[in-house]
Amino acid sequence: MPAPVPNSAAALLAPVRSLRRMQPSDRPWELAFACMIASGGPLLAGIATGWVGEGLAGSLGGMVLLYLPRTPLLHRLRIVAIFALAMIACYAAGLWLAGHGMPAVAAGIGLTATGAAALCRLLQRSPPGSLFLVMPAAIAAAAAPLPPARALTQLAGLTTGCLFALIVAAIYSIHIGRRHARLPVQPLAERPATIWRDAAVLGLMVAVALTLATLLGLTHPYWVAISTVTIMSGASVAQAWQRKIHRVTGTGAGLLLAAPLLAFIHAPWQAAVAIMALLFAVEMLVVRHYALAVAFITPMAILLAETPHLAAGEPAAELSTMLLARLVDTVLGAAIGVAGVVVQRAMARSAAARS
Predict the structure, then answer these.
(1) Which domain holds residue 237?
(2) Residue 15 within a domain
(3) What is the pTM for the complete model shown?
(4) CA–CA separation, 48 vs 40, rounded Å?
């Protein structure tokens, strides 16, 4: 049975109380280190060679390592390869959508999010869910359209990052397989119709998030969409409500961390090193305490957005304006995400009543 909407003081306060608890985790530190290398390596290479934009795209491609399961070696690599191809396709769609106007962008990213969410559920990779497939597409679609040659180099950068992540995944899997037992591949327990129904709702909410953020004149509409996807990765309304509390609280703490951090970073290589350190912290904390992980995700996301300006010798965006925008985007996206989960659960109850 789907979880009910929180409607009591105890249910509403439970996520607040969860902020005081650190969850146990058997995730090895080597995985966080591998993610740091897979994502940070392409960024450092891009900065060193002067291809900063391509390095940032490769850094996004390195995030595909997060889809690595704990199954036998060949299955692990097959899953990462599938998600690498999916990420490349999503990013290509975002590059193509850039400049087509918000109705087309919202519809295109919504459809992309639907397919990405369905793929994650069908291959049982939730978490991390569709976040790291939707993120590259939304970022590319929200940016100014690129000349065809530059768009191809950006796509090549992301593809290179995906391939590098696949190599890192193989090395990590061989290493960790000596000390940790591999889990068997589990059969799919969900009905495909249920998966596609929930995926369609997620895609619709992503389209709503992008449209609303644009109508409100927000400078980074993709941040709203990303927050929506993150919240909807919860399996129930209660989990979505808890994720919203954690995400908003963590974002507030992250903004406090970002202010002094950004004051000391004046070169792209400094930003790259900080991004790698923050990513390591995120991967160590994301299972143990989501709000703390978000506190490190927030400055990392801001640094990713500011690195091209640092490389071009341009002034960074006004700090207070940027931090306020990040908080507003997070709150709005989280609210839309909770609404989306409520719709998903209501549809699930309706389907159960008819069957």
Answers:
(1) 27-354
(2) no
(3) 0.87
(4) 12
